[in-house]
C-alpha cells in the first residue's frame, strides 16, 4: 500500500506520460550528485529483442559469477521487475524507500514518471559500482531519460522496425527516422548490431553511425550462428566458434538475441567470459511474456493437456518473428488477441497466415486499449474470428483438438494481466 501511494504521487508530477526532453532528468541527477557517472553499463536500444538480449546476458554473467543491476521497461506483473540490483529484484519496502529519496530530492518539480524511475535506478545502481549494469532504453533513445550516461562498456542495437509512430511528426513516421533516433547518439565504445529484418535497415544503421568512433560488430559480418542437427547451434566470431546446446527459450528469434548477447560479452575481453559460462547460461534464461509457455495455474487448468503460450509482441516486426515460430509447428494454432489502441492492428495480424481461430478480447485495466468488439470488426478478413469479453471466456470458447496450441498475444499489458490472472 505504501509503495502504491508513492507511485500515485510520482505519476502526478507531470501532465504528460511522455515528454521527450533530457533537461529534467539531468537536473534531478545533478541534485543526486550524478550517480549515472559511476556505472559500468551495457545499454540496449532497438525495437524488439531488448529484454530477451538482456536476459541472455544476465544468465551468462551469473554463470561467470558477476553481479548485475538491470533496468527494463515496461514491467509485466509488478513495477519491482524494473529494478534488479545484485541479481535480485527490490522488494516493496526497499522500492518505496528508494522512491521516497528521489521524491524528496526532486522537491515536487515537474518530471515524468519514467524520468523519476530512471533517476531512482541510477541512484541505487551507484551503490554497487563494481556491478555490470544492463540498461534498456525507453522510447527511441536520443531523448530518452537513460541517455545521460557519459560513457559505457558497449551499446547493443537489437532489431529495429516500425513502432511508437504516434510520437513522431506525421511526415517523419519512417524506419529511417526511428533508426536515427535510436542510434545517432550512441556513445563511443563498442557497438554490437543484431540481425535486422532487411539489408536496407542494416545499411541505414551503418550510415547513421558512420561517424561514431566505436568498435562495430555486425551480425553476419563479425559474428553469426547456424542451426545444426542433433539439437544444437553453432556460434562463431573473431575469437572462434562454439558448439552450443539449444537454449531453454523457444523460437529462432531467441537464437538471434542470444547470439547478440554472446557477441557483446565476448567483445568485452576484460570480462573473461568462458565457453562454459555461455553453455550453462543459455540453459537458464528467464523469459517473461516472450513466447512463454504457461505450464501451471488457473488458466492452464482451463486448457488441460493443450499448450498455452503468452507473448507480449505488439508491432509488425514482433508479429513476423512470432509467426515464423508458429509456422515451424505441425499443429493448429488458436490466437487470443488484445491490443493497445495506438498500434497498427491490421499490419500486426497480416503476418499470421495459418490460424485455426482468432478471438479478440478487451485488455483489462487498460483505458488506452482498443475494445475487443472494435478489433474484431477491424479484422473481419479472418474467417474464424470471434469476440469474448474476458480472457477466461476466450480460452473456454476455443474448440481445441489434440496437439493444438493457444497463444495469447498483442500487448505486453495483456501479457501482464494473463500472468497475474493465472
Structure description:
With 422 residues, the protein is of the alpha/beta class. It has two domains: 2-281, Mur-like, catalytic domain (UDP-N-acetylmuramoyl-L-alanine:D-glutamate ligase, 3-Layer(aba) Sandwich); 292-421, Mur ligase, C-terminal domain (Protein-Tyrosine Phosphatase, Chain A). It is 35% helix and 17% strand. Strand 9 and strand 10 form a beta hairpin. Helix 2 (23-31) packs parallel to helix 5 (113-125) and helix 3 crosses helix 9 (275-281). The longest helix is centred in the middle third of the chain and has 16 residues, at 252-267.
Look at the structure and name the CATH superfamily of the largest domain.
Mur-like, catalytic domain
Shape: globular
- The overall pLDDT average reads 94
Corresponding CATH architecture of the largest domain: 3-Layer(aba) Sandwich
- Poorly predicted runs: none
Amino acid at each position: 500500500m505504501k509503495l502504491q501511494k508513492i507511485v500515485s504521487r510520482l505519476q502526478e508530477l507531470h501532465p504528460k506520460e511522455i515528454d521527450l526532453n533530457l533537461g529534467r532528468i539531468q537536473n534531478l541527477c545533478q541534485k543526486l550528485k550524478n550517480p549515472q557517472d559511476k556505472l559500468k553499463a551495457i545499454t540496449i536500444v532497438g525495437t524488439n529483442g531488448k529484454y530477451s538480449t538482456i536476459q541472455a546476458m544476465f544468465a551468462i554473467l551469473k554463470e561467470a559469477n558477476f553481479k548485475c543491476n538491470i533496468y527494463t521497461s515496461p514491467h509485466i506483473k509488478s513495477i519491482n521487475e524494473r529494478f534488479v540490483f545484485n541479481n535480485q529484484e527490490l522488494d516493496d519496502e526497499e522500492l518505496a524507500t528508494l522512491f521516497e529519496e528521489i521524491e524528496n530530492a526532486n522537491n515536487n518539480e515537474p518530471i515524468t514518471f519514467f524520468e523519476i524511475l530512471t533517476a531512482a535506478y541510477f541512484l541505487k545502481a551507484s551503490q554497487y559500482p563494481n556491478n555490470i549494469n544492463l540498461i534498456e532504453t525507453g522510447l527511441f533513445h536520443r531523448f530518452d531519460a537513460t541517455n545521460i550516461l557519459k560513457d559505457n562498456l558497449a551499446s547493443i542495437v537489437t532489431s529495429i522496425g516500425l513502432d511508437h509512430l504516434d510520437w513522431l511528426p506525421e511526415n517523419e513516421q519512417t524506419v529511417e527516422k526511428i533508426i536515427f533516433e535510436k542510434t545517432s547518439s550512441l556513445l563511443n565504445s563498442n557497438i554490437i548490431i543484431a540481425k535486422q529484418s532487411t539489408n536496407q535497415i542494416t545499411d541505414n544503421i551503418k550510415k547513421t553511425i558512420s561517424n561514431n568512433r566505436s568498435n562495430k560488430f555486425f551480425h553476419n559480418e563479425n559474428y553469426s550462428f547456424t542451426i545444426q542437427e542433433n539439437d544444437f547451434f553453432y556460434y562463431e566470431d573473431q575469437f572462434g566458434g562454439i558448439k552450443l546446446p539449444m537454449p531453454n527459450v523457444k523460437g529462432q528469434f531467441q537464437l538471434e538475441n542470444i547470439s547478440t548477447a554472446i557477441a557483446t560479452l565476448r567483445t568485452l575481453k576484460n570480462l573473461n567470459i568462458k565457453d562454459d559460462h555461455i553453455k550453462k547460461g543459455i540453459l537458464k534464461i528467464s523469459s517473461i511474456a516472450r513466447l512463454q509457455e504457461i505450464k501451471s495455474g488457473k488458466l492452464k487448468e482451463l486448457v488441460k493437456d493443450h499448450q498455452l503460450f503468452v507473448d507480449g509482441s505488439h508491432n509488425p516486426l514482433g508479429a513476423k518473428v512470432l509467426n515464423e515460430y508458429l509456422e515451424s509447428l505441425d499443429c493448429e494454432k488458436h490466437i487470443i488477441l488484445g491490443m493497445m489502441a495506438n498500434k497498427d492492428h491490421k499490419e500486426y495480424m497480416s503476418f499470421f497466415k495459418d490460424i485455426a481461430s482468432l478471438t479478440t478480447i478487451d485488455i483489462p485495466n487498460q483505458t488506452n486499449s482498443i475494445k475487443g468488439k472494435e478489433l474484431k470488426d477491424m479484422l473481419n478478413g479472418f474467417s474464424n474470428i470471434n469476440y469474448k469479453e474476458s480472457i477466461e471466456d476466450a480460452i473456454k470458447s476455443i474448440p481445441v483438438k489434440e496437439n493444438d496450441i493457444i497463444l495469447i498475444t498483442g500487448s505486453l499489458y495483456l501479457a501482464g494481466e494473463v500472468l497475474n490472472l493465472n
